[in-house]
Design a protein that fits this description.
5 helices; 21% strand; alpha/beta
């Protein structure tokens, strides 16, 4: 699958992209909102794994803008957060996310989320 990993923490983004590549996916990274939106337009990823805690443009705002792009119309958007909120999934879905994963994200949780895309 074509996957875009969006996180302002470069080490986290690069490590997750490497993990995804090691199990056979094509993974790219973006470290801020504008770069993420440009990557979606250029590469039409099937999946975007997006950190919510981003500077300047929150993960929620990035997701809302992605959903306005024709290139992301059928993209699986997966939110990743370290914060645990009772209403976290509802808020993520309102922003356009399909799934919400809690950090640290393990390989099993990632693979489960990716199965949704292959259906």
């Amino acid at each position: 699958m074509r996957i875009l990993v969006v996180d302002d923490n470069r080490d986290s983004a690069d490590a997750l992209a490497w993990l995804l590549q090691s199990i056979g996916h094509e993974a790219r990274t973006a470290y801020d909102g504008p770069s993420a939106l440009l990557a979606v337009e250029r590469h039409s990823p099937e999946v975007v794994i997006q950190d919510l805690g981003m500077p300047d443009m929150s993960g929620y705002e990035i997701a809302r803008r992605m959903r306005q792009l024709s290139a992301a119309r059928h993209t699986l958007l997966v939110a990743v957060t370290g914060g645990r909120r009772a209403d976290g999934l509802r808020i993520a879905k309102e922003a356009g996310f399909d799934r919400l994963l809690l950090k640290p994200v393990g390989l099993e949780a990632l693979e489960e989320a990716l199965v949704l895309c292959s259906r």
